[in-house]
Write a structure and sequence with these properties.
By secondary structure, this protein is an alpha+beta fold. It is about 40% helix and about 25% strand. The radius of gyration is 41 Å and the shape is rod-shaped.
């Protein structure tokens, strides 16, 4: 009996070690699984965050493109109207297929020249002297010189009832509204209106 005691003790000691190893293995596997789950969860969150950012940027690009497209549609007629100075003349061009209500203005002097309706695909050349002479007749109290005409701008209303301003440098801007001129359209019979020429922009159209 006594001779077998150490052997049983050794066997019992070996059995405890195996159990401990099993527990350790289970704990290790649990920890590893938890870490793997945590890593996968973090990666999933990062991926979802990147996807959200991509979606947000795509929406922003789409919105910006839509705004640009809308602006271009709004400017479709306005872009066909030109206004520039050439030597001692002012050139006004309606390169669209629709009539346009137009006027030249000098905001600083608070005067304007009504051009009535410029026909489609037509342009008019107005000598500076003619502008000064017609204003001297219409508004004798206003004193203007060639130098003042450097500040001329063109105001016009497109077929969509949107009002625009184009300065002689070519810049285009929206007007809040097409306000009445406050005086009759007496200039429609002036030579520059009755002698309108074909606009080169419409050649071949």
């Amino acid at each position: 009996m006594d001779a077998d005691a150490p052997e049983e003790s050794g066997t019992g000691s070996y059995r405890v070690t195996v159990l401990d190893l099993g527990r350790f293995t289970v704990a290790a596997v649990t920890v590893v699984a938890a870490l793997v789950g945590l890593i996968l969860g973090i990666r999933a969150e990062l991926y979802a965050g990147r996807e959200d950012q991509r979606a947000e940027k795509a929406e922003q690009r789409a919105a910006a493109e839509e705004r640009r497209s809308k602006e271009e549609r709004e400017k479709a007629y306005a872009n066909l109207v030109d206004f520039y100075r050439m030597g001692s003349e002012v050139i006004v061009v309606n390169g669209s297929s629709r009539v346009m209500a137009m006027r030249l203005t000098l905001p600083a002097s608070k005067v304007r020249w009504d051009l009535d309706l410029l026909e489609p695909c037509k342009q008019i050349a107005i000598p500076n002297k003619a502008l000064l002479d017609s204003m001297a007749v219409e508004q004798p109290s206003v004193s203007l010189t060639d130098g003042d005409l450097a500040q001329l701008r063109l105001e016009f209303m497109d077929p969509m009832s949107k009002a625009w301003i184009r300065n002689s440098g070519g810049a285009l801007a929206r007007m809040d509204a097409w306000a009445p001129s406050g005086r009759p359209n007496l200039v429609s019979s002036e030579a520059w209106n009755v002698l309108a020429q074909d606009a080169p922009q419409c050649d071949g159209s």
